[in-house]
Amino acid sequence: MKPRTSPDSPLLFEEVPLVPDFKLELKARKAGHWPVAGADEAGRGPLAGPVVAAAVILDPRRIPDGLNDSKQLSAQRREELFAQILATATVSIASSSSTHIDLTDIRKASLDAMRRAICGLAIPASYVLTDGLDVPPGLACPGQAVVKGDARSVSIAAASIVAKVTRDRMMARADAVFPDYGFAAHVGYGTAQHRAGIERHGPCSLHRMSFRPLRKDGTEGATMDELLED
């Protein structure tokens, strides 16, 4: 049996980590669109709490160092970048409540929050880059959906950080109002602690009753993709 050998070009066989940059924004600018906003949301998967969206227009001369997908950053680093983004960029935030999510669905509620965040920018965007597969309907400007956008565009990465920090802070405050569920620890995701709290105390007004296992009408409820952590 011949021994296995390493490929002579290992980088061709390994996934190179994505690092967000400003190329998509500059491409849009070259096409005549400026300013360009990045938009993202946080909180599609939790069993409780709102989904929060943010839209950010970065100043090309003052882009904070270290912008990245919010999931790749520590909570402390997200907080630091959150402050820097708010100090240097144009930012808008919107949310859809658990009631809104239950009345529509998580995808529609997320896109609606993203649309309102984009429309709420103090400086109207000429073009929008959104994370994922969809551009929200009803925008006054064109846009582009970017798969893994928070790892490819610094504008989307900034929006992901703003949305995540805002939502985490909201859930920390919710913990003070509803202390039986541990919202400050898991921010609404379906952890063992959270499920035990629901089992012991029943759901509260922040819970998404259309999501499994809260949904009791025998239908499927939220899909697995919707329950995946942001």
From TrEMBL:
Task: Tell me the compartments it is located in.
Answer: Cytoplasm
For this protein, the record's InterPro entries field holds:
RNase_HII, RNase_HII/HIII, RNase_HII/HIII_dom, RNaseH-like_sf, RNaseH_sf
Gene Ontology terms, cellular component aspect?
cytoplasm; ribonuclease H2 complex
Q: Binding positions for a divalent metal cation?
A: 40-41, 131
Q: Which Gene3D superfamilies match?
A: Ribonuclease H-like superfamily/Ribonuclease H
Co-factor: note = Manganese or magnesium. Binds 1 divalent metal ion per monomer in the absence of substrate. May bind a second metal ion after substrate binding.
Question: Where in the numbering of this chain does the RNase H type-2 domain appear?
Answer: 34-223
Record PANTHER family:
RIBONUCLEASE H2 SUBUNIT A (PTHR10954), RIBONUCLEASE HII (PTHR10954:SF18)
Output this protein's name: Ribonuclease HII
What gene codes for this chain? rnhB
